[in-house]
Write a structure and sequence with these properties.
Chain lengths: ~210, ~210
Amino acid sequence: QIPRPTIERLPLYLRCLTRLANSGVEVVSSEELGNLLAITSVQIRKDLAYFGEFGRRGVGYDVPALLAQVSQILGVNRSRKLVLVGVGHLGQALANYDGFREHGFNISAIFDADPSKIGLTIVGQRVLPAHRIGEIVPQMGAEMAIIAVPAHAAQKVTDALVQGGIKAIWNFAPVRLIVPDHVEVRQENMIVGMLALSYYLAQRER
Amino acid sequence: QIPRPTIERLPLYLRCLTRLANSGVEVVSSEELGNLLAITSVQIRKDLAYFGEFGRRGVGYDVPALLAQVSQILGVNRSRKLVLVGVGHLGQALANYDGFREHGFNISAIFDADPSKIGLTIVGQRVLPAHRIGEIVPQMGAEMAIIAVPAHAAQKVTDALVQGGIKAIWNFAPVRLIVPDHVEVRQENMIVGMLALSYYLAQRER
Ligand SMILES: NC(=O)c1ccc[n+]([C@@H]2O[C@H](COP(=O)([O-])OP(=O)(O)OC[C@H]3O[C@@H](n4cnc5c(N)ncnc54)[C@H](O)[C@@H]3O)[C@@H](O)[C@H]2O)c1
Ligand SMILES: NC(=O)c1ccc[n+]([C@@H]2O[C@H](COP(=O)([O-])OP(=O)(O)OC[C@H]3O[C@@H](n4cnc5c(N)ncnc54)[C@H](O)[C@@H]3O)[C@@H](O)[C@H]2O)c1
């Protein structure tokens, strides 16, 4: 079982290695990676050791090879279809965010329950009525979904997505979703960021 | 030095204790808290021990007292003024999010550089031109800011905010900000959530 903090650092290694590869760097040491990421070189070696033997002592890591390994571990070595449910303020922001597309995550269907939104075109997708999730999602073969609906609607939307074959859900609604074991849910608590920042401010004021 | 994962769990304790207090619960054990939060009771006791002696062995925690303590630790026992810079897709979503107001974080000024946005009213605030940050922010006495501008503009906006007295910045732009030691920056990498989810999907496919 790999610790969650290690998994959360993998995307940072991916981004850093991608930048190094794009600027033609062939080899990088864990110390150099550490300086770029403000993470200790010991932590980097420990994280990567969970996944296999990379790099040679005294020489460092082969950048293209390590990049390919980390991409595979993160499952970004192929493109993935995303379903977005809810295009209110947050849904619109997420739909327009280029960062997902850059990593091969393409929003392939957008659903909402608001008649004034259904039929609009957002990032090239016509907004579809939420009651058709069960019919359309299985046809797409999508596996990942983002939920950006109000808390009261989130569980019902989840049930329809899971029935349609979705296996991984990123939930922004402030409610704990009940899903079968084979479905992974990432609960996003955006207030956590604000409160963590407030903690540091309160500490400095003491 | 308190570990970052502990700090990131405090907001979850705050929310849970708030719900318990609102439903009239007087005492709660670490086991009960653990069940509600899907965190082990050992972890809860360890986290809280960093901040002092709470609860009595065999009896549990006094909910209103612990709630007051955690609120103070997180600095939410008083309201705070927030500055938002950038009201594009993400900025608008953040401005409209009730979760911040509920914890006493009030958006007290909004800035943007786009002439078509300046002068609009968003959540009761007229959007102000970004070049006035240095003049207006010191008058407000605000200490926290959210940055939702493109990467190329983020450092310049940061410099103006820091000069204006801002001490804590939540940065959504994908660029590392350079700030003096007295300023705390929380870097938000929203792609991390997507990639962590993708990791679990890739693992299940093995
Ligand atoms: N705005 C933020 O920055 C932010 C931050 C953190 C969390 N959240 C959470 O994300 C969710 C969305 O927030 P928002 O600000 O975009 O809200 P919003 O009200 O602007 O948007 C919600 C959207 O969901 C749609 N919807 C409602 N019921 C639906 C259903 N059954 N099926 C499909 N679509 C449905 C609505 O029509 C609307 O378009 C909320 O749960 C909120 O608490 C928002
Ligand atoms: N949209 C998302 O879900 C998302 C997710 C993660 C990160 N981000 C990041 O957040 C930032 C904002 O994203 P967005 O989707 O809202 O982009 P956007 O282009 O819709 O909005 C950017 C806003 O910043 C304003 N701006 C530009 N230069 C400025 C300056 N010098 N001073 C003040 N305002 C200025 C623009 O006028 C615009 O209103 C970007 O850096 C993006 O990479 C966005």
